[in-house]
Design a protein that fits this description.
Elements: H1 8-11, H2 21-32, H3 45-57, E1 67-69, E2 77-88, E3 94-103, E4 108-110, H4 112-123, E5 126-127, H5 129-144, E6 149-157, H6 158-161, E7 171-176, H7 179-182, H8 184-194
The chain binds zinc ion.
Zinc ion binds near residues 88 and 93.
């Protein structure tokens, strides 16, 4: 069985590079911060800027993933250390996050690559870390058909390290669905298995 969780329609909306309005946005931005967009080093920067934003916002997670039949329903499956980059919606600055996804299969086991695709898909848009884990948890719940899903993210935000209090710090966000929210023993098992 193949599953599909993309947003294909957006992809067709990307304008050709030479008429992308984001090129003008970048030129304006450069002028506003006191730069000359026509100087040597900046000549191709507006096009690169436009291309990068289109790549970021029109990301395709891919569609070829497999669901396997689970042989037991009591096991705990954990996929950890999925590294993603996203953009903080408050500052438009990047944050990197390490994602751990856990679930208890009730009939369907998800192919490993699907977890990374789901994580990257939700990271490739303006986000806050709390919504990122919530979105991933909701998707995994839908795709696997199990209510028992947990997502943990540890993120480092450039809006903290580069501006504001200018210190590096890790922020942890969690989303516990189903038994992970009601069964302290299950949550304790998850945390003991993912402790590094
Ligand atoms: Zn921020």
């Amino acid at each position: 069985m193949t599953t599909h969780a993309g947003h294909d329609l957006l992809h067709d909306l990307t304008p050709p590079a030479d008429e992308d309005p984001l090129v003008d946005v970048a030129r304006q931005l450069l002028k506003e911060i006191g730069e000359d967009p026509d100087r040597e080093g900046l000549r191709d920067t507006p096009q690169r800027f436009a291309r990068w934003w289109r790549e970021f916002s029109d990301y395709h997670p891919g569609t070829t993933d497999t669901l396997f039949e689970a042989t037991t329903t009591s096991q705990l499956v954990i996929v950890s250390d999925i590294a993603v980059w996203s953009l903080c919606e408050h500052h438009l600055l990047p944050f990197s996050a390490t994602i751990t996804i856990a679930y208890r299969p009730t009939g369907h086991l998800l192919g490993l690559s699907k977890f990374a695709r789901v994580a990257h898909n939700h990271a490739h848009r303006l986000q806050v870390q709390e919504r990122l884990v919530a979105d991933i948890a909701t998707d995994i719940t839908t795709i696997t058909g199990t209510p028992d899903v947990a997502v943990i993210a540890r993120g480092e935000h450039l809006c903290m390290t580069m501006r504001g209090i200018k210190t590096s710090a890790l922020m942890t966000s969690t989303a516990y669905h189903g038994a992970f929210s009601t069964d302290p023993a299950l949550r304790a098992e998850l945390l003991s298995l993912t402790r590094s």
